[in-house]
Design a protein that fits this description.
The chain contains 24 helices and 23 strands. The strands form 5 sheets. The chain has a 7-stranded parallel β-sheet with strand order 3-2-1-4-5-6-7, with helices on both faces. A 5-stranded mixed β-sheet has the order 13-12-11-14-18, with helices on both faces. The two termini are 78 Å apart. By secondary structure, it is of the alpha/beta class. A hairpin with a 3-residue loop joins strand 19 (500-505) and strand 20. It is elongated. Residues 50-217, 230-337 form the UDP-N-acetylglucosamine 2-epimerase domain. GO terms for molecular function: N-acylmannosamine kinase activity; UDP-N-acetylglucosamine 2-epimerase activity. It holds the Pfam family ROK. This is UDP-N-acetylglucosamine 2-epimerase domain-containing protein.
Amino acid sequence: MLRSREKMERENMEEHNQSKKRLRVCVATCNRADYSKLAPIMFGIKSHPEDFELEVVVLGSHLIDDYGNTFRMIEQDDFDIGSKLHTIVRGEDEAAMVESVGLALVKLPDVLQRLRPDILVVHGDRFDALALATAAALMNIRILHLEGGEVSGTIDDSIRHAISKLAHYHACCTRMAEQHLIAMCEDHCRILLAGCPSYDKLLSTHHREDYMDIIKSWLGSKEMVRVMRKKGIEQHPNFRAVKHIPFEQFIQLVCHAGCMIGNSSCGVREAGAFGTPVINLGTRQTGRETGENVLHVRDADTQNKIYHALELQFGKRYPCSKIYGDGNAVPRILKFLRTIDLDEPLQKTFCFPPVKDPISQDIDHILETQSALAIDLGGTNLRVAIVCMRGKVVKKYTQPNPKTFEARMHLILKMCTDAMRDAVCLNCRILGVGVSTGGRVNPQEGVVLHSTKLIQEWSSVDLRTPISDALHLPVWVDNDGNCAALAERKFGHGKGVENFVTVITGTGIGGGIIHHNELVHGSTFCAAELGHIMVSLDGPDCSCGSHGCIEAYASGMALQKEAKRLHDEDLLKVEGMDMKLSEPITAAHLISAARMGNSKADAILNKASTALGVGIINILHIVNPSLVILSGVLASYYQAPVQRIISERALLSAQSIKVVTSDLEEPALLGAASMVLDYATRRIY
């Protein structure tokens, strides 16, 4: 049984491996120098056929006889070359280099379209590599760039950095190169500090017993003699010239040389792994990280400088340097390749440092900075806020609402002046002022006609004129219930809904009606006084002077009154209910008692829910909205029972109308702001 289970698990694993898509990796090599870095990666990819599919493209000087036709060593390493592209235009000047790039760009599209790699691996800073990266980027092929972020001299720097900007992923050799790439705004998550792949071979194969045989074979090569004759230097016994040396044998020459001299990157990179003394001539490698084995002769204007450098360097031995790698680059790169997500967006993003956003005419900037001053006049507090176009409360100010008209107006203007001053620092352009207040309001004139009893000395009050004169801004005024509906229309559940009703369930009951996308005010501005819809001919007295209104049953004040009555009769508190003696009795205590099994509290709340539900049904039968939004502190409690009552008692065509609770935390302020933001921007655009 156990053996059978193991067999099933093995078969499942095999099926998983077969179904997993292999990453199609194309490695493009342009010359023998980059092949020495790419070959270890190619061997690594080839040794994991379950994860990768290798394609090899050869171009550049690999195919030139003068450079030894080095493509043959790729074939000798048993790699199948998928394409050979002759891209070198003969010549020693800059024009030939440009023409070579152009020729490569002409030939590469057909090859890349045929191979269709998931990722292209390019190395270094040669012009051939720039052509490869350009073609791949324009053909939406992911690019892994090796040895980016390094600094040297001549045109190489510009080419290397250009390839880095085109590349999607980076495998760099040193910590400094990694920091350079980050400074170039490349995504840190896509940068691998791998080390140089050639170091994997350098550090594992340079201790060979037959190194002297290798050295002697190259010092007596007929090929070298022919080249020396061609160059006219064969007369000097200390010079040997060759087209090409296989990398493994080249390692032995570098490792055991008395000194290495020239301007090749091999001198400042690979030679350091052996501690071989190096004389670096000229500025080509300026800026590269080097070990102490490298002596620079940047201005080789006289032979004496070079002779003196040779006297200092020849025959010395330096500590081995691992600046460019520790011999484990290839395993890191293969692991990195396995993590590449081909479903990730191809378009690369740059990690620019944070800077202050410039002032511009970008629409998002306009929406953020165009703002309104919103004022909410409540029975307890007076609040002012800066609200931006997206409905964000940028800053809010709260003070107790004074009891007299003069003190209230003085405080309103002071709070608004403070907010205007702060708006400048917050880069908010105030378009106008919106005022939300309790009571009956004439929005056309900006006048409070009749106030609620909670706000004293607040009837027949012109709000628009003094505020507009003091702040030099347009002013809009409306009832708090209407403002709640406007807030839902612009920022809440009512956005995009042509017909809906907002019902405020707070200290009182109020609301607003949106019909055909417009707020309904009525002929005398008392439309949507939803709290004063009568649901009983002989119900409790209401603050409006009538009786049997929704507000008399379902408002916070009505529930608080009933809670106090039960408390006075010692019928409110039940076992397990946390209630302090000094704590004022509120509607919340009534709800808590009902939830804990108090039947009398539950009966009161059922009656309140029924009254509210019946009142809302009357609204549905009159204006027939498609949505009801409950707002205020009691909304979450009333939503479910009101929805149930509608489904039971409304006409069949209205029973499916949905009841939701508002998600807006500041409906009065947002509604006041929306009057400004909607009407002011209509004039601007």
